């Protein structure tokens, strides 16, 4: 791969991939509206507002693959999400369509299915049940990815990311955690695969307790290596037992599902 674009490169996940994918492509093109620091060897740093269609069209030129992490990654006002997540994602797909149709990794979220109960095991066929306006934007992004594959043959892996940090930060993350190492290896598997079509996957490590099934995606050859159980004793000692009557515990989306409507 000659050039791999990463949008949202200033964020947590972008920083993980900036370090972890060094040398995977000849050039990492890093983009955000926030400060990303200077470009290092094998890097291009491009400030770009995803709501600017012309700028995004330039951003996506000469790219062999795109990791789309850009946008607002928390619950927010609808008008803000409209620009960053709805319009920004549309502009990204239009840019890809106009510039060689590179494969895209779309950073979806577990919040697209957050109103499923924890007692339900999900796969790619499970009903979308967003737990927030933010989750709604991820449902939209997945639908857009499906449309651009069926209509224009732009391949996408829509990755419903759980919680990607060095270690879990609470009891819920013992089930949703994806290690940075597994995240990096998944990115390589996505772009190394001969084909993906529009594939919906869950971004989660090989945890003993998890709510999501990726058996349908075995053809890309990704096998997560890490397991949150190495942190279980530490996390359970630091956080009280969960109340099974709490909506944040009943539903997979946790606190996103338990909170009221953001606009109220």
Automatic annotation (TrEMBL):
Q: Which InterPro entries match?
A: Epimerase_deHydtase, NAD(P)-bd_dom_sf
* GO MF annotations in UniProt: oxidoreductase activity
| Name of the protein in its database record | NAD-dependent dehydratase
Its source organism is: Thalassospira alkalitolerans
Gene3D superfamilies documented for this protein: NAD(P)-binding Rossmann-like Domain
UniProt KW keywords: NAD, Oxidoreductase
Give the family per the record. Answer: Belongs to the NAD(P)-dependent epimerase/dehydratase family.
Domain spans labelled NAD-dependent epimerase/dehydratase:
5-165
**What Pfam families does the entry give?**
Epimerase
